[in-house]
């Protein structure tokens, strides 16, 4: 019975990590420092030949404060990173991507469920499957 429960837990953990990617969505910059008030977006399904990521792009505009854009982005197959494009009279000073939910916020440590599960599952498995 314990082996069945452990197998169920492992399958459930894998199902949780298969959800669509969710990113902060602030094309003109998020307002304030309270991230709970920032808008989010589910990035949706991706084509087989691309990868969905969260983007954080810092743009410098002469005579204005820097703008930090956050959104979902797509990296085409064969590319190693997302390529930010500058609009006229704008200069990208930072173009960073990540692939965890809501990871495109500034300067925060995010909890990775996958990293946590990769530590806990072997411990649970050793308790149930090793005699």
From TrEMBL:
Residues 1-20 form the signal peptide. The chain crosses the membrane at residues 109-130. It is a lipid-anchor; GPI-anchor. GO terms for biological process: regulation of synaptic transmission, cholinergic; sleep. It is found in: Membrane. GO terms for cellular component: side of membrane. Keywords: Glycoprotein, GPI-anchor, Lipoprotein, Membrane, Signal, Transmembrane, Transmembrane helix. This is Protein quiver. It comes from Henosepilachna vigintioctopunctata.
């Amino acid at each position: 019975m314990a082996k069945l429960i452990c197998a169920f837990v492992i399958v459930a953990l894998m199902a949780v990590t298969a959800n669509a990617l969710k990113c902060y969505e602030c094309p003109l910059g998020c307002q304030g420092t309270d991230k709970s008030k920032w808008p989010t977006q589910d990035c949706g399904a991706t084509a087989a030949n691309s990868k969905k990521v969260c983007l954080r792009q810092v743009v410098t505009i002469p005579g204005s404060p820097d703008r930090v854009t956050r959104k979902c982005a797509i990296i085409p197959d064969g590319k190693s990173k997302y390529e930010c494009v500058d609009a006229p009279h704008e200069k990208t000073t930072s173009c960073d991507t990540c692939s965890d939910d809501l990871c495109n916020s500034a300067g925060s440590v995010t909890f990775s469920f996958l990293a946590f599960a990769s530590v806990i599952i072997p411990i649970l498995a050793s308790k149930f499957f090793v005699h």
